[in-house]
C-alpha cells in the first residue's frame, strides 16, 4: 500500500519485509509512485484508491515503472474521476486483465458512437481478455452498449441502475442476436429495489429472453444466472 502523508513523507505498509512476495499493489497518490520504481516485480493485482489524484497526462509509464503492467490480471479503479479514455489507454498496456472494477464510464466531450470508432478502442476490444466487470455507479443503456462492445468476452457483469433502465438494459443484454454478449451468463444488480425481481422475471417470461435461468436476491443484491 503506497500513500503520501500531509507532511510529504512517503510511507508504505510492512510489505517492505519481503517485497518480492507482494502480489497486490494499492496506490493512494501519484506522488507515492515516485518512491517505488521497479519494486513490485511479482505483483499481479493493482488498485488505485479513491484518493488517487488522476493526472491530466498519461499514468501508464509511471505505473509500468512500479509494476509490470502486462502481468496484471486484476485492476480496481476506486478513484472517482477516471476518464473512460484513460481506462482504454491503460487496458491497451494490460492485455491479461480478466477482472476489472471501476466507478463509472465517464465520457468527456464525446459520445459512445465516436468512442467505438477510435482505433485504440478497436485494438483493446480485439485483444483484451476481460471476463468479469463491476461498475459501482448507475449506468445507462448507451453506456452498457459501449461496455459490451469493449469487452465482447464478458461473462459476469455487476452493475447499478435506475428502475427505468432495468428493462431496456436487460432486453439488450439478454438478446439472442447480440454478438457482444454471447458469453455473458451472470448478471448482478448491486442495489436492487423490491420490484426489480418481479419486473425482470416478467420481462424474461413475456419476451422469452431465457429458457433456463435462476433469479435470486442475496444480501440485497439481485442475481441472474443462465
Q: Please mark out the parts with pLDDT under 50 across 5 or more consecutive residues, or reply none.
A: 5-17
Structural class per helix/strand content?
alpha/beta
Content of β-strand:
15-25%
What can be said about the biggest beta sheet? 9 strands, mixed
Rg measurement, Å: 19 Å
Helix content: 25-40%
β-strand number: 11
Molecular shape: elongated
Terminal CA distance reads: 38 Å
Please work out how many helical segments DSSP would assign.
8
SSE succession = EEEHEHEHEHHEHEHEHEE
Strand arrangement within the widest β-sheet reads: 3-4-5-6-7-8-9-11-10
Instruction: Average the pLDDT over all residues and give the rounded result.
Output: 88
Description:
With 226 residues, this protein is of the alpha/beta class. Helix content is 30%, strand content 21%. It contains 8 helices and 11 strands. The strands form 2 sheets. It has a 9-stranded mixed beta sheet. α7 packs parallel to α8 (196-207). The radius of gyration is 19 Å and the shape is elongated. The protein starts with a strand and ends with a strand. The model is unreliable at 5-17 (pLDDT under 50).
Brief account:
By secondary structure, the chain is α/β, with parallel strands linked by helices. It has helices spanning 30-33, 60-66, 84-91, 112-116, 119-127, 141-150, 163-174, 196-207, and strands at residues 2-4, 10-12, 24-27, 45-48, 74-77, 99-102, 132-138, 156-160, 186-189, 214-218, 221-225. The protein is elongated.
Amino acid at each position: 500500500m503506497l500513500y503520501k502523508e500531509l507532511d510529504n513523507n512517503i510511507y508504505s505498509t510492512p510489505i517492505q519485509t519481503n517485497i518480492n512476495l507482494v502480489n497486490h499493489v494499492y496506490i493512494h497518490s501519484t506522488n507515492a509512485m515516485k518512491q517505488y520504481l521497479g519494486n513490485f516485480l511479482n505483483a499481479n493485482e493493482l488498485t488505485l484508491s479513491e484518493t488517487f489524484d488522476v493526472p491530466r497526462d498519461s499514468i501508464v509509464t509511471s505505473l509500468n515503472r512500479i509494476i509490470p503492467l502486462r502481468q496484471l490480471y486484476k485492476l480496481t479503479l476506486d478513484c472517482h474521476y477516471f476518464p473512460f479514455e484513460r481506462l482504454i489507454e491503460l487496458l491497451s498496456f494490460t492485455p491479461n486483465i480478466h477482472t476489472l472494477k471501476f466507478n463509472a464510464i465517464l465520457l468527456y466531450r464525446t459520445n459512445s458512437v465516436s468512442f467505438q470508432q477510435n482505433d485504440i478502442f478497436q485494438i483493446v476490444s480485439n485483444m483484451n481478455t476481460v471476463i468479469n466487470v463491476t461498475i459501482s455507479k448507475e449506468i445507462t443503456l448507451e453506456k452498457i452498449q459501449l461496455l459490451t462492445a469493449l469487452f465482447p468476452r464478458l461473462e459476469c457483469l455487476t452493475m447499478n441502475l435506475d428502475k427505468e433502465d432495468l428493462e431496456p438494459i436487460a432486453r439488450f443484454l439478454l438478446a439472442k442476436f447480440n454478438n457482444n454478449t454471447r458469453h455473458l451468463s451472470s448478471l448482478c444488480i448491486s442495489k436492487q429495489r423490491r420490484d426489480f425481481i418481479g419486473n425482470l422475471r416478467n420481462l424474461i417470461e413475456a419476451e422469452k429472453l431465457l429458457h433456463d435461468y435462476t433469479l435470486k436476491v442475496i444480501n440485497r443484491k439481485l442475481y441472474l444466472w443462465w
